[in-house]
Amino acid sequence: MDSYTIAKSFLMFMAVAVAFSFFFLRVKRLYRLMTAVEGVSAFKLDQISTRIGILFKDVLGQANVRRKTLPGLAHTFIFFGFLAVQPHSLELMMKGVCPAFEVGLWLPDIYGGYLFAADILATLVLVGFVYAIYRRVFCGRPT
Amino acid sequence: LRPAYLTLGTDANLIIFFTCLIIFTFQFVNAFQTLLPVAPGAYDYHGAFPISGLLVGLFGLNAMSPEGVVAGYEAAYWLHMATILSFLVYIPGSKHLHLLAAAPNVFLKPLRREKAIIKTDLENESLETFGLGRVSELNWKNVLNLYACTECGRCEEQCPAAGTEKPLSPKKVIHDFKVDLLDQSEAILSSNFDQVKPFVRDGAPITGDVLWSCTTCRACEDICPVNIDHLDFIIEARKFQVLMEARFPPEVQETFTNLENQANPWGFSADSRADWCRGMDVPLMSDKPEADLLWFVGCAGSFDDRGKKISQAMARVLQRAGVDFAILGPEEACNGDMARRAGNEYLAHMLIQQNVETINGYRPKRILAGCPHCYNILKNEYIQFGAAYPVVSHAELLFDLHKQGRLRPNGKSTGSLTFHDSCYLGRWNGVLQPPRDLLRSMNSGQLTELTRNREKGFCCGAGGGRMFMEETLGKRINMDRAEEVIGSGASTVAAACPFCATMLSDGLRDKESGIAVKDIAEIVDEATA
What we know:
The complex is a heterodimer of chains A (143) and B (529).
Chain A lengths: L2 H34 L11 H13 L8 H29 L10 H31 L5
Chain B lengths: L9 H26 L16 H7 L7 H25 L7 H10 L32 H9 L5 H5 L11 H14 L1 H5 L18 H5 L6 H5 L6 H14 L7 H12 L30 E4 L2 H5 L1 H16 L4 E3 L9 H5 L3 H18 L4 E3 L2 H9 L10 E3 H10 L13 E3 L13 H10 L5 E2 L27 H12 L3 E4 L2 H13 L5 E4 H9 L1
């Protein structure tokens, strides 16, 4: 391993450790705040299977967001595009820390299919953003 | 000409910048990966990226030297990683916290459309305060709601108050609660709750005008893509203002006094509650306790001149259909809806308990409500006080009677007809189709929809106790709706709520329009006479 690769590996390790530590500390504080408030909720968790169905339909399926067709479609593009990018970005992150990490060789066909799809979906994020910016700059208030 | 509800603050701009940069750098990393020499035993990225591969030709990357390709890859890589890791740190403090909170908030959402105001335990002597006065008094579910909001502005777009230049924006209320919560988080996390300042305070964005502008129409909750319960904040805040601070619009004091003394908001003698049906042979429950249907007439239907005509029409229709019904008459008190939504939980409990005792004394088979506010509270909130009976709205009952062949149209048409959805019938209880089917049946199949209809129906401005408050800020909500009714080209607008009928009539009169406002009971009465 050359000195650049060693330095890159060290820097990436530090950057990942610091960023994730900050992230978890901030999320932990928000969670603590959520549970520290005095009010009592009457909420009772029930109908788990129905709730899982809602999660699939409204969050993964983006059905709630798409009740407004075009903005909903733009959000769906951004949502799925961003989701699709994450595994490859995570892989690159791992590869930065540990250059020998080579996920593509485990299941090359599936990996190739994923990269192909992720590359297209990533572009759809930009399409979604172009529409979102257009809407914020040019559209009028619906009557 | 950006829509007012779509804000582009620093937070939003940064998020757009971060995300676009992540995608651009991702695609450049991909593009350079296709040009890097394939190390032995490594994955070959040639031809792996259909879009990023185009960047190679587009930017002439393939003309770069091998060293240049490596340098380009490393530059794109570091920029990509720096952006992703910065975004990761930025998310929890930004509105994009919804990336983490939206899914749990949706998962934990109320599964029923119908909802009840939270019952405050006024008998609990250990409680030092009632309602919501400080962010520390929120519960975990409220806080999750705050975290889940992405400030998309759909609530503000639908809100009748925000749309008529009132100071209320549901989006801003949620945002302001969140900011106040985070600002006062040190005191909350250290359990120094007495150091937490009230959210309605000098210079704070949540003011009395904000809280009292709400008509409780639930358009915000219905449209919210992450299922935030905006009303849980507003109504609990009103409770605190009324019960703990005695702060509310001054004109409401008279209404509260009337409700307390005469059990109706106008202060008519409670004994005269059944005067509207004098000479109509309408039985009282006290005379006919075994009646199939207890008709809870409501205050508007009993005392308001316009409402009394609707009740008379309804009584004629029920008699024509041969329904075995009776009313409570002087035994009936206001249902408590106005007091409860105006934050006077104490007065609401008093009225509700009075009715519950009366109703439980008769144990009716079914209760009919001609007013959606009565319908909603009897159906969804009286259960909190020990009265659980099947409740039917007059829209549903009349359509059922028609389907059974007990109400036959006489073929006379009302002319061009449109329908105004009552919030408490439609959005609160999902009764959207029966009034439409009924009106079509009674009007030779003709019914025109208003632009904002069904779940997106626009409030008349009377809900949440607003019927008894002055509307001095912005444009009057009923004028906005009246303009829409005029724009529909209909000659008659049907309502299914006496308060909606009054608000629409006032709005149309002020617009000098000749459009008639009729309750569906009046239309059925005319169509089956």
